[in-house]
Amino acid sequence: MSIEHKTGLREIGGTEQTVVDYLTGHPDFFENHTEVLAKLRVPHPSGHAVSLIERQVEVLRQQHRQLERKLVDMIEVARANDALIERIHRLALALLEGGSLAERLYSAQEELRNRFGADEVSLFLIHDRIPDLDAGPARWLQRDDPGLDQFREFLKAGKAYVGRMRAPQLEFLFGEQADRTASIALVPLGDHGKQGILAVGSHEAERFGPTLGTAFLTRIGELVAAAIQPLMPE
Questions:
Q1: Which of 1, 53, 180, 200 is 20 to 30 A from 88, alpha carbon to alpha carbon?
Q2: In angstroms, rounded to a whole number, what is the distance separating the alpha carbons of residues 184 and 117?
Q3: CATH architecture type of domain 98-231
Q4: How far apart are CA 164 and CA 185, in angstroms?
Q5: pTM over 0.90
Q6: What are phi and psi of 166, to 5 degrees?
Q7: Location of each CATH 3.30.450.40 domain in the chain
Q8: Using CA of residue 215, residue 160, residue 135, residue 142, what is the dihedral sign?
Q9: Beta bridge partners of 185
């Protein structure tokens, strides 16, 4: 009795799904009927028929290669994440070492440039008035500053943003370096940017692309915000 495709199925009076269901429900079928297993031939992409066992071995080899590639990818991602976590840890330590608001903001700027490879780093602190307090590399802005109008949606969302921005926005953030900045990461400091904005720029257009996750950027923003909160004026 043949169990080959089409004609065989008609001869045994069943359907493909019936055969599939039966074999699935009886995984020991071929163990009990080795003579059938020996006669089976399965089409191979090369065009030659091979035994079922040979085909199964080839499928297992392919699955093994796929699993190996996935494992290598996972290891590479884990290593990259470990390195990033180490840099964030160093950033936290540097922020804690600073005694004044200016020192902590300078530390943040330096760490982002040296350890995170940022080409441009701009910091903006937002307050109801312009305080008489040295903010180091940061620029004080009043909440009603007209320049902030073009970032209202970003502040309303209260989430890190990566990608590109319009020329006026880049000029506001990076001044003379705006023309060299091809992509940016914008991070709110505090709840919906209540304390300010951290802007990180890259000269590479693909550095901060839409596919880049923002989880670590959010953590960096939280660290900076927590470090400067006790030193912010009332």
A1: 180
A2: 13
A3: 2-Layer Sandwich (3.30)
A4: 9
A5: no
A6: -70, 160
A7: 98-231
A8: negative
A9: 162, 200
